[in-house]
Specification:
Number of helices: 9
Strand content: over 45%
Strand order of the largest sheet: 13-14-15-16-17-18-19-20-21-22-23-26-27-28-29-30
Largest sheet: 16 strands, antiparallel, barrel
Helix content: 10-25%
Length: 627
Amino acid sequence: MKRGRGRHRLLAGLSALLMAPAIGWAQDTGTGLPESVAPAHAEEADLLRADGWRLVIQAPEPLDRLLREYLDIARFQREAAEPGALPISRAELRRLVVSAPEQARGLIDAEGYFGARITTRVHDEVPGRPIEVTLTVEPGELTQVSRVQFVFEGELDARLEAGEASAQALVDGLSAQWGLPVGAVFRQVDWTAAKNAALARLRADGYPTAVWSGTSSTVDATTRQARLFMVADSGPAFAFGDIRIEGLDRQPASAIVNTAPFRPGDPYSEKQLLDWQERIQKLNLFESIFVSTDLDPAHAKAAPVLVQVREQQMQTATTGIGVSSDTGPRVSAEYLHRNLFGLDWQAKAAVRLGRNDRAGSLDFTSHPWEGRRRGLVSTQATRIVEDDQAVTLSARARMGLLREGERLERTDYIEVQNASVTADGGAKVSEASAYSATVQWIYRDVDSRTLPTRGSTTLAQLTVGRSYSALEEKGFFGRAYLRSTWYWPLPANWYATVRGEAGQVFAREAVSIPDTLLFRAGGDESVRGYAYRSLGVVTDGVVTGGRVMFTSSVEVARPILARLPALWGAVFVDVGDAAASADKLDPRVGYGVGVRFRSPVGPLKLDIARGQQLQDWRIHFSVGISL
């Protein structure tokens, strides 16, 4: 692919086009309707019913289907076969026959066959037989692109001449992503799409008023080659100006401004505007958001940005009911205040009451601070009845700082927590308290956060701390945890999901660690076919957390019914275990089938899984609604 720069190169390019060989066409042959079918003396003889004529198209696929779909004469034939259709006059049929080759050539040219030979032939009328119109197409070879040339005008050209790296990177990107490179088949639809895509990228990356000054494609039907020539006038390079916000009443402007991925003076980027709008939406402060820029070239050096919002209610309360194979039936309630005491902090209180799982939490999250940071303060208490009727109690308090990026999110926090495990008879099996510091990273690169089908997500944690008030010894410890999930679309409308998870606690064997910092496996999001949190270390007949854990899963799924694309069927295999040390891991295998309903708020799942070592089947499901 070659590029030219500036208006002084435009004349040379146009001259080359004018001197290029003209397009050559094969001559059409055919006579139209024979004189023997000219109008008779009687007016009725001038009309032909559906069974009085037929069209035969002789062309290779897919050109055959194309011509039958879009030729006027083919359309008249389809309409003539419909009940109540009026007959066609011989004069009208003669007109359709004469125009068919030209129409066919236009359709075939658009598919890249510029040297096609097209003929029409009409058989003499024979009493008792329909008139037969035959259209024959010999397409020849496809036309390929032999040369692509860009010429740039406007400020982009000036920046290229000045050797600016950003301008060169933009032009290189346009060339690399051009939709009709040398060697590609030249089709009209691809030519149009390539021009639209290139102009859209130019407008999105700093030149929003860019236009094509001229575009041309020169096709040599003899050599089956196409040469493409484009002149793009970039117009001025735009930069972001001041931010103006409309619609605020009780929320601070800083909540919006501090999430902006740009500063005044930064180069204009349409993607940054769209990402910013999505980021503001995720604050859960506004009912609607619209971000726009004034693209008047007179303000190109500092284009003002307008953010129009409608605030949500300051306070909301919701309730919910649900049931899960892991924790049984449950009810929940949540209260949210979006600016507590006018301090620019959100507060959320939540209570969940279930048969086997009860929890209460209070979370405070600041509005965004400068640098896309947010403060976090939270407390939580939980009570879980395990599958062996042991009871796990835990409580924690956490304070930290969240840093939000485009795909990577980092949270640093300090935490104080306590956890205990009590057997069904009341004996204390495990108890410890600890204070710790954790760094957590979450990476997301998926096509949808709620219903992903392509991409990956990763969560990684590193923790250091010291236990105290322990049932055994107190001491220092470290903890590492990693969980990654990959999503791939497969052929035949299948989709694959692969998950890997691993964790380990590093400490002396005698040092007690809170059970909430240890690891268990089993259940819906772990190893299906085994009960929730049932894989771990057995102490005095009670399952407790292990210091080492790994799980993995492979699942393939696809829609079951074409008329209900949100309903999917799945097959899966899970494997994993949790133990006191790596040499004591005993991988358990679960496999089965399931159904997923991909609702707008996330998938609803029902699985039937067999635990291979248990030689038993278990149902996993989770359903819940908000009221």
